[in-house]
Amino acid sequence: MTAAPGHLTPATLVEWALRDDDPGEDGDTAAHLADCPGCRDQLSRLRRVVSLARAIEAPDLPEPPSRQVWERIARDLRGTGEPDAD
Hints:
The protein has about 90 residues and is mainly alpha-helical. Helix content is about 55%, strand content about 0%. The chain contains 4 helices and no strands. Helix 1 crosses helix 3 (about 35-55). The longest helix has 19 residues, at about 35-55. The radius of gyration is 22 Å and the shape is elongated. The chain starts with 9 loop residues before the first helix and ends in an 8-residue tail after the last helix. About 5% of the residues are buried.
């Protein structure tokens, strides 16, 4: 995905959103953000997503599939054996 002419690329915005430190007001990116409400809004949205993703704790994540599930998937992918009856 490319940026609209005159705007920061999505990759640049994501890179800034992932930063733990404040990049300050140095450089072309900071200067652009100071003058572009659209890019600032996109950066703000991305920072919210990053913040929410970082707040996820292990109990919030689903349990991994059991060994039997992976064995069934592997068997089905190889095209051998019949589906399990259970």
